[in-house]
Amino acid sequence: MQRRLAQIDESIARYLSQLDSPDRQGEAVPEAKITRLNEKIATLREEIQRLNGLNTLMMQTEDKQITLTAPLGRGCWPVIFVGECRQLVLAVD
């Protein structure tokens, strides 16, 4: 997760650099490009918030792990939320 957060930070820095570059060179930037870059930055900031929330949930679990795709895939039956589960064992004759 830390690696993904670092990648997001790099992307935001790159987009901010693209916004600042024309200002330093005295060039005009199309409004559409400015809007698109600002939207990308906003989306990445939302992703940071989402990942930080998941990290908080993950740290609250006993084994410091969560699964987002298949809670039953780890042999776990979710009771209330991601952080709490009960083991489900089936015996077949």
**Proportion in helices:** 55-70%
Global structural class: mainly alpha
* Count of distinct strands: 2
- Global Rg: 21 Å
Low-confidence stretches: 77-82
Q: Treating each run of at least 4 consecutive H or I residues as one helix, how many helices?
A: 2
Distance between the termini: 42 Å
Name the helix and strand elements from N-terminus to C-terminus, one letter apiece.
Answer: HHEE
How many structural domains in the coordinates?
2
Biggest sheet, in brief? 2 strands, antiparallel
Global geometry: elongated
Blueprint (SSEs and pairs):
Elements: H1 2-25, H2 31-60, E1 76-78, E2 85-87
Antiparallel strand pairs: 1-2
Helix pairs in contact: 1-2
Characteristic key phrases:
two-stranded antiparallel sheet; 93 residues; single chain; 2 strands; mainly alpha
Textual characterization of the structure:
- This protein is mainly α and 93 residues long.
- It folds into 2 domains: 2-60; 63-93, no CATH class.
- The chain is 58% helix and 6% strand.
- It is built from 2 helices and 2 strands.
- A two-stranded antiparallel ribbon has the order 1-2.
Task: Offer a concise description of the structure.
This protein is mainly alpha-helical. The protein has helices at residues 2-25, 31-60; strands at residues 76-78, 85-87.
